[in-house]
Amino acid sequence: MNIARKSLIPLQLATLAMAGLAGAGTAHAASDAAPLSAEVSAQSCGKTPAKNSHLSRATMLKRGKSWVTAKVPYSQTGTYCNGYGRYRRDCSGFVSMAWGLHTSYWTGSLLGVSKKVSKSKLTAGDALTHYATSTARGHVVLVVSKSSKGVNVYSEPHSGSHAQKQYWSWSYVKANHYYGIRYKNVK
């Protein structure tokens, strides 16, 4: 290592330390304004199940609604912890939590713990999914209710958003190649 690089290292470390101190006050203020961040959540953390749970549809909806009520912010790297355990804060982590899975699955791996279900048989606690192709990313949402015109879902939609209830028309579902899946351990 040359001498110029050696003398820069202490300066770089000092700069990082000062940035950390300056950011500490900001992070604290941000946590007061938005206590929903998984890293600053004051809620008690329940135990994530050791194996995949057998849950009723009502329990799945209750679990899903807990994130919607808390407006859990989307993140593919962060986690959120509440009375149901710690799960990744993206769409598949959200469905994993609602279904009581032992870990945060990814959209494609949810297919291993579920089976396809037709639109006519789709019901509360099921999910709508499509997984990545060359032109689209995978996504999954939890079904709350359906009608002849569309479906209400709980969703962790995308970065910059949070868990929420949404309405999707059947034309939207079809145009975006979603199909129904049902958790194999539903009671």
Automatic annotation (TrEMBL):
Signal peptide: 1-29
Domain of life of the source: Bacteria
InterPro entries cross-referenced by the UniProt entry: Papain-like_cys_pep_sf
Keywords: Signal
Gene3D superfamilies attached to this UniProt entry: endopeptidase domain like (from Nostoc punctiforme)
Name of the protein this chain belongs to: CHAP domain-containing protein
Source organism per UniProt: Actinoallomurus bryophytorum
